[in-house]
Amino acid sequence: MSILLDQASDEADQAPDASPISGLEIELLWSLQEATAYWHQLENKAAQSAYSSSAWVIPWLEKIAPSEDAVRGLFLIGRLDGQPAFLLPIALHHTWGQTVACWMGECYNNQNTGTWSSALIGTDRSIDLLPRIEAALRAAGVDIICLRNMPEELDGRPFPLWRQHMARSTNPIFPFKLEPDFQRFYAARRSKAARKKLTAKRRKLEASGTLTIGAEQTAQGHREAVQATIDQRWVRQKKTGVPTAFRSSCHERYLHEVFALECRDNRRRAYEPVVHTLRLDGEIIATVLGLILGGRYYCYCTSIRMDAHLTLSPGDHLMHAVIEDMCNRGLQVFDMGLGEERFKKAWAEPVYLCDWITPLTPGGALIASYWDLKLAVKRHLRKSPGFWRTYKKMRGFFRRMGL
Questions:
Q1: Are 210 and 280 contacting, i.e. CB atoms less than 8 angstroms apart?
Q2: What are the Cα distances from residue 272, in Å, to 191, 259, 261, 268, 296?
Q3: In 3-state terms, what secondary structure has residue 180?
Q4: pTM for the whole thing?
């Protein structure tokens, strides 16, 4: 089933200073099968983050969405003068009896963009796009739009859905530009003392066994690295209380599929999965799982085995190797992903994303007010170092007690 909204629909919902996008049609598709062909056609020459590609989102829709209560997929299709213009993969959740529109797989994505043609991205033709999308989602029965973690730029051009007035996302990403000469780049980024200290730790690590660092080249290597990531994050949760995102068998199957060396069922894949490991005597001590798309490396997640080697910084050694590998491959940008972990700040400055949160009904407005209050409290507590130290200690204690 699909709903077609022409450019004249809901004109009252357009911003007063917005001029209509000539020749734009927005269609709502509820069928993945109907959307897939359009998605693949658009991906051939579109801009998107790796987390908005069909090969990343569709496995989430198939493996994880069925385990979540009251989730339904919706695809917003845009055509400009009859040609593919954009695709937004939306998941409809139900909260307090209200329908919330989020990005598909939002909890597993470091940033969300949808898929866009060059005809709209970075042009004035997107000026009235938001009210048009609001009208489409209202027609689909949505009470509140909640599209989080959107960038200000996509492929170096203004992102069509970003607006100055939107709320800043809770956590930033940490991207930085790469250079072909890694050693010169490394010397400029890290102090001589930091480099010397890391070299000393590397020598101690090498003295404790046979050290192998690099990208896994086989399907078996990818499987072993992904499983090590899952296992190491479970151990970290038990010891420290830091929750793992891969909490069930369906989440684990999802991670294995999106980082498999070969895409199953001959599916198309816009991104390249890259899996790096640090092995000591053949055992995986640390992992970095990442994606390459359009000259950009997306660091998705990292893991470290919690043992006696932690003091020798195996994660730092591996990240160093990953960055060097991306320089050698000629990539332009290294994106360390979402979250303010300490190791990221040694390489990059934070870049904040934005959240598009707009209630479309009175019920949606109540949810938005609650979220605003909750976020204000969280930000206040985050400013208290003492609170966070106590919180982390208590979280680890309760996890160790199995509570």
A1: yes
A2: 32, 9, 8, 11, 11
A3: coil
A4: 0.88
d(CA 24, CA 80): 4
**CA 300, chain centre distance (Å):** 7
Q: Say which amino acid occupies 179.
A: E
One-letter amino acid for residue 99 of the chain = T
Rounded CA gap, 222 and 263, in Å?
Answer: 12
Q: How far apart are the C-alpha atoms of 74 and 140, rounded to whole Å?
A: 9
If residue 209 lies in a helix (H) or strand (E), which one and from where to where?
none
Q: What is the C-alpha separation between 23 and 376, in angstroms, rounded?
A: 42
Where does the pLDDT of residue 245 fall: very low under 50, low under 70, confident under 90, or very high at 90 and above?
confident
Number of neighbours of residue 401 by Cβ within 10 angstroms: 7
**H-helix segments, 208-357:** 219-240, 249-258, 314-328, 342-345
What CA–CA distance (Å, rounded) separates 188 from 19? Answer: 47
DSSP H or E segment with residue 265? none
Q: φ and ψ at 362, to 5 degrees?
A: -60, -40
Query: Beta partners for 5?
Result: 26
Q: Which amino acid is at 357?
A: I
Closest among 70, 172, 78 to 121, alpha carbons compared: 78
pLDDT in tens, 24-55: 899 999 999 999 999 999 998 889 999 999 99
**Residue 154 and residue 47 in contact, taking contact as beta carbons nearer than 8 Å:** yes
Write out the two tokens for 176: 């930085």
With CA atoms as reference, report the closest residue to 90 among 50, 40, 145, 45.
145
